[in-house]
Design goal:
309 residues, alpha/beta, Metallo-beta-lactamase, Chain A, 7-stranded mixed beta sheet, 5-stranded mixed beta sheet, 9 helices, 39% helix
């Protein structure tokens, strides 16, 4: 059963989204738990209107400074994230955490670098950023035009392997790496005293997830299993509205398991790629946005991944 605080946060999230002007990025942060705030991005693709922020981000007010969870898609978005923080608290930003190597998780680093804020990420995430950063900026520039101005490849300044603890003020913050999945360095930010996890791209809800060429479905399932053991009360997913474990399991893990289970059987039977894709029944996830756009590529990449195992 969902706690009252969680239901209230969901209502606030829905209100924030529904009150946003159509076709415009509305950078509102909603309270998730005492001291924890989240921005819930659109579930569609990157557009000029959403400024590449088709993902969630957040911040944590600790009493001794603020920790930013993902710096946003551009320099200008990061600046507005900071303005939103300043509307809530006078505490300075002490740390920025990048939960992965996707553009909307870290390209705002260029703004926070100017403030001299330490930026934390898992080691593989930093390598992913270095490899893909310039291409990510070029891709966004084509859509965002001058909204990309000021955005540069700024890598994290503090790297970790499996865990980074940030005991700050009255909130215990743990950055945990379980093996990646959507991208190689995907991490989660766990607030054990509050029962809240910022799950980054380990969790997608309210839209179909995307299997990327540089991701790994097997690792993704293992990361989800590790997150599940935390037993969070509230999940801030990488994409979609606040949720509980049941919804996260249904729309993330169950889908990934479906992909691998089908492709495992196809490979055992020496079924060729196109036939394996055509015989995969993904229809129970058809209600999720982006299903038509992503289902074929997800199937193909899972087959190719398992073929190499």
């Amino acid at each position: 059963m969902l706690r009252f605080g969680y239901r209230t946060a969901v209502i606030l999230a829905c209100f924030a989204l529904c009150s946003a002007p159509a076709g415009a990025l509305d950078l509102q942060f909603i309270p998730v738990a005492p001291g924890a705030y989240a921005f819930i991005g659109e579930t569609g693709m990157r557009t000029a209107a959403n400024e590449g922020m088709n993902a969630n981000t957040g911040f944590i007010v600790t009493g001794a400074g603020v920790v930013v969870v993902d710096s946003g898609s551009t320099y200008q978005v990061a600046k507005r994230i900071h303005a939103a923080i300043q509307s809530v608290t006078n505490e300075p930003v002490k740390y920025v955490i990048n939960t992965g190597g996707q553009d909307h998780r870290w390209l705002g680093n260029s703004y926070f670098k100017e403030l001299g804020v330490p930026i934390i990420a898992q080691r593989k995430a930093a390598a992913d950023m270095l490899e893909r950063g310039a291409a990510q900026i070029a891709g966004l520039a084509a859509e965002l035009k001058d909204k990309i101005n000021g955005t540069e490849v700024v890598l994290p300044t503090r790297l970790f392997d499996s865990e980074e603890k940030l005991p700050l003020g009255n909130i215990d913050i743990q950055v945990l790496y379980f093996g990646g999945g959507h991208t190689p360095g995907d991490s989660v930010v766990w607030l054990p005293k509050l029962g809240v996890v910022f799950a980054g791209d380990v969790v997608f809800v309210d839209r179909l997830l995307g299997v990327l060429p540089f991701g790994n479905v097997k690792d993704w399932i293992a990361s989800f299993d590790a997150l599940e053991k935390l037993q969070p009360k509230v999940i801030v997913p990488g994409h979609g509205n606040l949720c509980d474990l049941a919804k996260a399991r249904k729309e993330t893990k169950d889908y990934l398991v479906l992909l691998r289970t089908h492709m495992q059987q196809a490979l055992k039977q020496n079924v060729e790629l196109q036939t394996a894709i055509d015989t995969l029944d993904q229809s129970r996830f058809k209600y999720l946005p982006n299903w038509d756009l992503l289902k074929g590529g997800n199937a193909s990449r899972t087959y190719l991944e398992m073929e190499m195992e």
